Amino acid sequence: DTGVSQDPRHKITKRGQNVTFRCDPISEHNRLYWYRQTLGQGPEFLTYFQNEAQLEKSRLLSDRFSAERPKGSFSTLEIQRTEQGDSAMYLCASSLDRDRAGANVLTFGAGSRLTVL
Amino acid sequence: AQKVTQAQTEISVVEKEDVTLDCVYETRDTTYYLFWYKQPPSGELVFLIRRNSFDEQNEISGRYSWNFQKSTSSFNFTITASQVVDSAVYFCALSEMASGTYKYIFGTGTRLKVLA
After folding, report:
1. CA distance B83 to A95
2. What is the secondary structure of B53-82 as a DSSP string?
């Protein structure tokens, strides 16, 4: 297993366009998380899946953002009608569920950097 | 509310110096987990350590050591004999049990530059 994969690594788009990011977690991990990181800041939680179920969403996730994890494997994060404020690094992480809540070690992907012009 | 403060924005040291990265957290929960992650220039966060709130033993792993003090709500990270490869951004993170949430609160990170 090569770890958590994210695609694309970089995306430049014009304001108003839609973008989609894909995350392939470690195969045996049933938990998947999306975080957003802006320059000089730590990762901010966006949403979390256990298998295919989206169990939690941050208030940061406006209605222009949607995430899916069909079949509990890979996940996509779509941003509709992008705004310049959406420019950030979008990080995906996965973990096992054998640990108690909150104790899981997250394995992160390298991120997808979005630039909205 | 959860909060993690890393007051040091950037630290520069010369190779072989020891350096300590500070982390102060806030939580109302009695059961929580603390983490340190390293983010090298490649961008991928790498897990370094996890500590639960009931285990205040300090830990040493090679050149890395962690000092967890509940009395001061701190979880500091020391690198002994720093090397250029230690240059990265280091994040401290907190996760609470009681909230039932699986989100982690990260600090703003400390950028460490180790100069040859």
Report:
1. 30
2. TT----EEETTEEEEEEGGGTEEEEEESS-
Strands B64-69 and B59-61: antiparallel
Question: Does residue A97 or residue A27 have the better pLDDT?
Answer: A27
Q: Residue B37: its pLDDT value, please? A: 97
Residues 6+ apart with CB under 8 A from A89: A36, A37, A38, A111, A112, A113, A114, B43
Q: Looking at beta carbons, which residues of chain B come within 8 Å of A88?
A: none
Does B106 contact A42 at a Cβ distance shorter than 8 Å?
yes
Per-residue model confidence as pLDDT tens digits over A51-97: 999 988 888 888 999 999 998 899 999 999 999 999 999 999 999 87
pLDDT at A101: 56
- The tokens describing A48, both together, are 């979390």
Q: Does A91 touch chain B (CB under 8 A)?
A: yes
DSSP, collapsed to helix, strand or coil, labels residue A117 as coil
Is there a contact between A94 and A29 (Cβ–Cβ < 8 Å)?
Answer: yes
